[in-house]
Amino acid sequence: MKLPSKSLCGVAALLYAFLYAPIAVVVLFSFNAGRHGAGWQGFTMEWYRSLAENRLALEAARNTVALALCSTLIATVLGTMLGYALSRYDFPGRRWLSRFLQVPVFIPDIVLAVSLLLFFSVLRQRLGLFQLGLATMIVAHVTFQIPFVAIVVRSRLAGLDPALEEAAHDLGANAWQTFWRVTFPLMAPGVAAGAMLAFTLSLDDFVVSFFTSGPGSTTLPILIYSSVKRGITPDINALSSLIVLASLLATVSVMLLQRKRPG
Predict the structure, then answer these.
(1) For residue 191, how many other CB atoms are within 10 A of its CB?
(2) CA 54 to each of CA 47, 57, 68: distance values in angstroms, whole numbers, following the listed order
(3) What residues pair up with 32 in beta bridges, in sequence order?
(4) What 3-state class would DSSP assign to 132?
(5) What class has domain 55-259?
(6) Using the 8-state DSSP alphabet, how is residue 4 labeled?
């Protein structure tokens, strides 16, 4: 028995309202003139202007962007290599490696965060390496970003016609020339989509960042968490709204890049 289309639309509307209403409230109250209370007291851009003068917020923003860019660059290179190897080469343990690639995707963030903290603590005690700070956060973010990049790149490669690479070999191109002139241009949208996904994950991450951070490495999610303990104010809403906007732009970019079909 099929449900009426109007009923399905109503259910879908309720589900979307449930998912996005809290975000909409945060964005709305970031323009509220009242600093305290839930009542609307007028429209203002003051809280966004004050963020530009907030030293802690600016420092956290720099740390967040630096962390996301560095970890995304490393994860994109390593994830692309891993995805290409899993898609184009047959080697012992390939099937098991493909399955284990899914583990960091499904493992709870808190488990990964505690494991990384323990790992860094052991290295610091035994070898004097990895003092908690931006460096440990970059390593931690690369750890959970690589599987996402590899999965996206491998999916892109699975949709490519092998005949194109075979034709390049038949025309005299070696393996290196075939990769750079045929394979890589075709897989580039997948690489870019994986990079944008990794960047978004790093930008929004709190749990792993919180456990692996050190002095002077506060990011925006950590700053918001520490500020909320003193009460939710419009400047926190404004900061959260900017993070939502950045995440939305990155997510839309990923969707557009993934929609590009191999030519």
Answers:
(1) 21
(2) 10, 5, 21
(3) 43
(4) coil
(5) mainly alpha
(6) P
pLDDT digits (tens, 9 = 90+) for 6-37: 777 878 888 888 888 877 887 887 787 777 65
Query: Is residue 176 exposed (0-12), middle (13-18) or buried (19+ Cβ within 10 Å)?
Result: exposed
The count of other CB atoms within 10 Å of the CB of residue 167 is 13
pLDDT tens-digit profile of 36-50?
Answer: 656 777 777 887 887
If we measure between CA atoms, which residue out of 200, 207, 204 comes closest to residue 116?
Answer: 207
Token pair of 215 as six digits: 């002095």
Domain residue ranges in the chain: 55-259
**pTM, full prediction:** 0.79
Q: Which of 210, 212, 242 is nearest to 226 (CA)?
A: 210
pLDDT of 259: 67
Distance CA 49, CA 235 (A): 9
State the chain's mean pLDDT as an integer: 82
